[in-house]
Each structure stands twice: as structure tokens, then as C-alpha cells.
Amino acid sequence: MNSRSTGVTPPNGWRAFSVKKLAIKGGRIIDPNSGVDKKTDLIIQNGKIKGVGRLPDGWEGELIDAAGWVVCPGLFDMHVHLREPGYEYKETIQTGCIAAAVGGFTGVAPMPNTDPPIDNPGLVRFLRAQATGLPVEVHPIPAVTRGREGKILAELAELHDAGATAFSDDGSPVVSSGLMRRALEYTRMLNAVIIEHCEEPTLTNGGVMHEGRVSAALGLPGWPSIGEEIAVERNLRLVEFTGGRLHIAHVSTAGSVDLIRQAKARGLNVTAEATPHHLTLDCTALESYNPDFKVNPPLRTAEDVEALIEGLTDGTIDAIATDHAPHARDEKEVEFTEAPFGMIGLETALGVLLTRLVAEGRVSLTRMIEALTVAPRRILNLPQAAIEPGRPANLTMFDPDESWTVDRYRLHSRSQNTPYHGWELTGRARGVMGCGLAWLRQD
Q: What is the pLDDT of residues 190-211, one digit of tens each?
């Protein structure tokens, strides 16, 4: 079965559960929306949460034994690249959503650097339709400018009417300060947000990794921290001037964290995200010359990693997003300087964060969940996936103690460019529930 109307067949090792009458028993429910953190049962009826509490005796519906698992609002990745339309050989909406579900995500926001770029209402509606029959919501992020060319604003009002709540030229910055000013002013009237890839191209042109001691030793062209920070500073000044809303994508430097922290202290309407790889890897990983570690912005220093973790714990960094960026193997397996930027992350994010941040006591489990659930939906003006009676069942279930080894050849993305191949991780998704559908891993 591969019908968009009746549901997409889950991948091997997973099976679909009916959400007409379903109970999840004995899980640890963590919902940052309400502050709940307790072991109890959930009853689902007709795709909605019927009750939170002890399962009644004589239950006759479907039953999921969640003992030892965490049950939380569905994870939402607010920054992914699903490559459709134009680059379906790397990823499609369907393959990306299957990878998302396997990774524990029930919602994704694809960026517009496609071919053609997502800059009109028809494409927004088309991409949403491609996810029909999957337990993952798709909320496309259309371009700020027509064709992502940075010259003329896209039809932002029409896109907003089509359901867009955020706009971005991600993959490219909006270089023109005048155009960014108008975008912030326009989206302020729409109560929407601009998501900006902060980069000053004249400072970063030709750079393939963080500029510093390691790049000098490796003989690779550098991408300096100031190339991000000067763009962050400019955009924050424009927010202060216009009163608009700005979200800063994939923050990577300590200087950027400080600038955002100061801006929030001044009351500016700014939010920010960090990726699992910028929170757990530094530029010494590139000593292997492995192009799977090549990302934009680049992996920075260990000091930058520490600043990002501190920013995540104190709320300067609001959300965690993967920046899932699939590329075919023949594109990545070339000279390092010629390889494209990007790595996949939907299926490894949960395990990497639980292993490298939560288990090591760097970030609390509740804060991690909040950054993957509440924060992205709040930033994008989307309904929260609260675990409350009467609300749609939008849930993620994961085993925080399950050990597994990342194998690029067994992932579900159409591409295999993960830097975590061979890593031993602890913590893995067991099931997702969303869009009136439930998938559960059986192995």
C-alpha cells in the first residue's frame, strides 16, 4: 500500500496502529506546555487524547506498553531541506517525512532552496499535499524574495494567506539591508517571522570551514566567525528599528550568542536555533577531511560549542533544529573543497542530543524536549502539541536508554551523508502519533 489517501506503508520494522481506541501505558509523560512530568497512562480515542491517568480495568482497545519510555509532545524540526521540487534524487517530501517519523518528529518545516524555489502559494499547497498519509505535518517556509534572488520581495501576503507563517531565503542571506528592512516591516503586519541565514558573503566567499588554527594547519580556506556575527548585528539593528520579528537560523559562534542575549535583554523580538551538530561537534572533526562534516555555517571551536550549550540552557537559544541537508554520495565523495555543504540529521538528532548533552548532564531532558517541541511551534505561530484531554494526539515516544549504532546504509533518508556513521548512541524513537496516524517501531 502506498496510497496518499489511505496512508503510506511504514518502513520495515515499523507498523501502523489504529488511533480509534488506543492506550499508551506506563510511560513517563513530559509536557513542557503544562509542566507535567510523571509516569501514567494515556487514552487516545478517534485521534484525540481522551484521558491522562490510570487506564481503566478491562481495556479492550489497542495497547502500547511504554514502560521505560518517555512520551512527550511530537518533536518538530523547524529547519529541514527536503529537496522537492527539483532535487528529488537527494530527498523527497515523502522520504524526508519517513526519516522524520523514524527519528521521532511529527512535524517539519522545509526550506525554500529548491528548483524552482518555494515562492508562490501553489508550491506551498503542493508540498503539503505530498505528506498526505504520513504521521508528519509539513509546514513549508517560502522565500522572502522572488526566486531567492535577493532583489524583490515575494508575494508575502498571498503566501501568508496560503498558510505560511514564516519566510526565509535560507541557503542565502538577504544581503540588502533595505530589502531586509521592508521584509521585517511587511511581515510585522502579517504577524509572521523572518528566518535568516546570517552570513556576510564578502567575508565568507570561498571558505569551507571555520577560519582559525585548524584551517591553517589543514590548508583549507576559512569561513571566519565575524562573517556570521556582523550579519547577526545588522539584522538585530534592523529588528530594533522596524519592530519586526526575526529568527536566526543555525547559530554557530559564541559572539552570535552574546549578541542575541543582549538583544533579548533589550526586549527585541528575536529568537534563535542551534543544530545538534553545532552543539556536539567542533572544527577538529575536519582533520579527517571527511566532507560529511562540511556544513554552512561551519563547525566552530570547542569554546563556541560551550557557548551554544550555555545559550541553550539559559534560553538565549530557543530551539533545536537539524538543518537536515541531504546530498547524494557522488556529490559528497569528492575533493573536500568541492563538496557541497550539509549533513542529514533527522534520524540521529534525538540520539545525539540524549547521548552528548542530556546523559552528560549538560542540558536537562525537559529543556531538550522543550527546544524540540514547544519552542519551534511557538516561533512559527503553530498550535502546540499539548498532552491534554480533547487535544489532537500529536506525540513522540522514545526509549532514553536504548543503545544503537548509526549505520548510514540503514537510515531512511534518500541520502547517506551523516557524520555520525558508526557512532554508538543511547536513546532512540519508538513511535510517533500525528495527523490521525500512529507508527510504532517493532524491532
A: 999 999 999 999 999 999 999 9
Give the count of alpha carbons within 13 A of 431, CB side only: 26
CA dihedral 84, 86, 87, 89 (to 10 degrees): 90
37 counts as catalytic:
no
| CA pair distance 197, 168, nearest whole angstrom | 8
Categorize the per-residue pLDDT at 216 as very low, low, confident or very high, splitting at 50, 70 and 90: very high
Cα 194 to Cα 184: distance, rounded to the nearest angstrom? 7
Looking up cell 561551519 gives 298
Cβ atoms < 10 Å from Cβ of 178? 9
If pLDDT is split at 50, 70 and 90, which confidence band does 110 have?
very high
| Beta-carbon-side half-sphere exposure of residue 183 (alpha carbons within 13 Å) | 31
| Three cell numbers, residue 187 | 511581515
For residue range 307-344, list pLDDT tens digits in order: 999 999 999 999 999 999 999 999 999 999 999 999 99
Strand, coil or helix: 252: coil
Q: 41, 304, 318, 323: which one is catalytic?
A: 323
Environment class of residue 181 by beta-carbon count within 10 Å: exposed (0-12), middle (13-18) or buried (19+)? middle
Domains observed in the chain: 2-71+390-441 (2.30.40.10), 74-379 (3.20.20.140)
E-strand stretches of 186-269: 193-196, 209-210, 222-223, 246-248
User: Can you point out the beta strands (E) in 46-90?
Assistant: 48-52, 62-65, 70-73, 75-80
Question: 70 is written with which cell numbers?
Answer: 518517555
- Read off the C-alpha cell for 280: 556536539
Is the pTM here over 0.85, yes or no?
yes
